[in-house]
Amino acid sequence: MSKPSDNSQLIRNFSEILGSEQILTDPADRIVYECDGLVLNKRMPDVVVLPRTTEEIAAIVKICNQHDVPYLARGAGTGLSGGAVAYNGGVILQLSRMNQILEIDYDDEIAVVQPGVVNIQLSDLTTEAGYHFAPDPSSQKACTIGGNVAENAGGPHTLKYGVTTDHILGLTMVMPDGSVETFGGRCEDIPGYDLVGLMVGSEGTLGIVTEITARLTMNPKTVQTFLAVYDSIEAASRAITQIIASGIIPAALELIDSLVIEAVEKHMKLGFPTDAEAVLLIEIDGAPQQLADEAEQIEKICQESGVRKFKKARDEQERQNLWRGRKESVGALGKITQAFYTNDGVVPRSKLPEIVRRDIEIGKKYGLRVAHLCHAGDGNIHPIILYNPDEEQEVKAALAVSEEILKTCVELGGSLTGEHGIGTEKRETFGLMFSDDDQEQMMRIRTVFNPDELLNPGKIFPIGARCGEAKINKTISRGGWL
Amino acid sequence: MTSPEKLQSRLESVLNSEEIQSATSGIPAQFTVYPENRQHICELVKLAVADGLTLIPMGSGSRINSAGEFDIAVSTSKLNEQMEHSPADMVATIPTGTAFTTAQSALRKHHQRIALDPPVNDSSTIGGIVSTNDWGTLRHRYGTAKNSILATTIVKGDGKIVKAGAKVVKNVSGYDLNKLYIGARGSLGILLDVTFRLHPLPEQIQTGTIRCDSLDEALLAASTCSRLPLNVESVELTKSSDWEVTVTIAGSSETIKIVEESVAENVSWNSESGKSTTKHKVGIYYVKASIPKSKLKLFLKSVSYFDSLSLWSLPNVGVCRLSFEDAVQLTRISASVESSGGFMEVEQQPANSHFPRWLITPPGLEWMRRIKSVLDPHGIFAPGILGEDL
Question: Nearest residue of A to residue B254 by CA position?
Fold first, then answer.
């Protein structure tokens, strides 16, 4: 894709199937697509195309194959692991024009949507009928369901309701050979290997999703939300472990530390206590009688773990404010730092106090502050490393802190990523979790679907001599939603 | 096919003689072997590759249900491995040869459980349940093994041990190969252990059965039960002579009043969880069907008049189990499932009956074949057990 003449022919071929407004070649238009949530290393795609139909996507894929050009699909670009960036150049298929909700069937409790539908739109449309789409990443006002499928997105409420893979029944996909395939369907238990389960979370490396049959979840009958204020992260972490161990599965159980509280209060003034070391946002839902029992039990656990203040949201407005403080907190961090680098590790829940302590120690070792937002009930931590992007040493230090934190997560029995994906960001650490043999088993699967690796190359697996791809420098995310 | 004498000799080159048994009743293989450690399984797989032998992985063998014949059945039930349970994390890694009831008993001491309740006997193993993706009443609330399994370890087609997933409740690192292995009936490798997300054991359970005069009445009762403001663990719909709805609720006896006020007054109560999966009569034919929920009523009506039909369904999920005696009924049921947009699997049939496991071809079959061919390139793992070259 480096020779202009090659591009010309490619673009001519695209023009035969797409309108001129569906093909972006001007650098001023393409620059928008040079990165997703990762910013330090950017690469503009050579061409951006904006298909409207499955058939157009199939034709685009065939043209890319003819020209031996790498290509990948992109939704809203809210990803934080570099999964939707054309680091090898080539073509980006921007799917934002495939944004139709094709069908909602309350009898089957499903929705059929195109991949460019924004996550929150599906819940907004179905809430009056008493339903929602359960995966709720904090980017849900912007991220697309196609992106959720690619990354197996989570969110605060996946603690109780599961991640994206638990809510997808069927997929229509354009495969890397240009064929159109349907996997799964409108019901469960499709015989044979679970191809839908395999595709969800494959980071756009096995095919391009063009239609999604998603399960709709009934809205909870009653919801209660609590804020528990702590003077130490250790005490807050003890409460988390105790709540889960008691048998209660909250709808959400989030930890916000003092640095994030400081940012939230500077930005939004929601009344979070700025002298607290950590707050827990605890939400339970379900049957009213059960909630009363669980609320009592949770308050008791919090009291026993040394809570300074335990407060119940009195009404929906107060509940929404608490959630606003959580969901918009990353954006608020811009109030206290020039830049920040967000991590996404997972540890066994019982290791939460240890990982938070060690993260802070690692940050101190490199002279950087580390803030914490955690889907604590899942053991999914988002350490946020604060740094100055103009100081080269701080950039290097931030990268080093990130790598040490991820290593520590794996050392404690956890995972490199709970919901952001490996992408390019963590691929060089993939070997910390998976042996060469483990990886080879996964790569065999990639070979089945994507034998030439033209579809979204350079993602998930460490770059080796085999692929002959250029080594990509480590990258830093610009923030985003967690 | 290799002669029994030669095969035994070859097996003795990688296993101790006490690990080897000749043909066992009900196991479709010349030999059943019980390796005592992982290394022996790896060596066995390498032997199978070298000699072109076929292996059928198993636990106790109770769920094999295959018309095929294999050289060696490989049981994981004698592997000398222990369950790893972290109560605080609510996660357990369980060797696949562990009896399901043994694992649940150990977890129960910590008021935890695997939220699966398929029909089992004392010897049913974790591996057998996972390999067949079997389920019971709790599927209503907790889903299947696919919703509970976090990580797996298998011996793959070259005799190496590989893992997928992570032993934490949230993880998106790499491809989710667990999903492929669950329900693959051992056709992609030999499962050594699986890691489950655990759930709390309810302190009290109330199970009520409502006898209904018609399918319409039963479906209405089931729907109402599903929407009760209670912790509904399961809602089952059964038909043998009458239609019945069984609702299981995690909660105290106070919940009984709510059900009786909302659904029906004539409820028979007890304090055990619903076990309709083992209640229904197992006929000559035994099938599982999955139907879009909106078409379930039509489907149930279309089959409800069949003679000797025993039917058990989770209407809120859209899945059914049916048993019956007549092959003609099987073809009618299949036609009805297909016209509903559903799928089915023949789990059991008479020895002289030769219906394929899948009467309705699933989407993506060619891709499944390709997956089988790359993960089991020598075709040693239970070839054909799923039908359709899988």
Answer: A289
**ipTM more than 0.85?**
yes
Q: Which residues of A touch B204 (CB under 8 A)?
A: none
Please, which residues 137-196 of chain A have a Cβ atom closer than 8 Å to chain B? 151-152, 154, 158, 162-163, 165-166, 181-195
Alpha-carbon distance of B342 to B291, in angstroms, equals 4
* Amino acid identity, position A33: Y
Can you tell me the distance from the alpha carbon of B305 to that of B366, in angstroms, rounded to the nearest whole number? 37
Alpha-carbon distance of B360 to B352, in angstroms, equals 21
Nearest by CB to residue A198, choosing from B179, B201, B342, is B179
Return residues 90-119 of A near B (CB < 8 Å): 105, 107-109
The string of DSSP codes covering B264-329 is -S-EEEESS---HHHHS---SEEEEEE--GGGHHHHHHHHTTSTT-EEEEETTTTEEEEEES-HHH
Q: Does B166 touch chain A (CB under 8 A)?
A: yes
Contact across the interface for A416 and B173, Cβ inside 8 Å:
yes
Which residue in the set A288, A421, A442 is minimally distant from B177, CB to CB?
A442
Q: What percent of chain A has pLDDT over 90?
A: 77
Each residue of B9-63: pLDDT tens digit? Answer: 999 999 999 999 998 888 999 999 999 999 999 999 999 999 999 999 999 888 8
Task: Say yes or no for a CB contact (<8 Å) between A248 and B200.
Answer: yes
What is the pTM (predicted TM-score) of this model? 0.94
Q: Spell out the residues 6+ positions from residue A240 whose beta carbon is closer than 8 angstroms to its own.
A: A253, A255, A280, A349, A352, A376, A377
Of A154, A189, A222, the CB nearest to B170: A154
Please report residues of A whose CB lies closer than 8 A to that of B374.
Answer: 444-445, 447-448
Given the structure tokens 């087609």, which residue do they identify?
Answer: B157
- List, as own/partner pairs, every contact residues A426-433 make where C-beta atoms lie below 8 angstroms and the sequence separation is at least 24, other chains included: A426/A81, A426/B173, A427/A458, A427/A459, A427/A460, A427/A461, A427/A462, A427/A463, A428/A462, A428/A463, A428/A474, A429/A403, A430/A460, A430/A461, A430/A462, A430/B173, A430/B174, A431/A462, A432/A406, A432/A407, A433/B166, A433/B173, A433/B174
Q: Does B111 touch chain A (CB under 8 A)?
A: yes
User: Which of B11, B119, B12 is CA-nearest to residue B72?
Assistant: B11
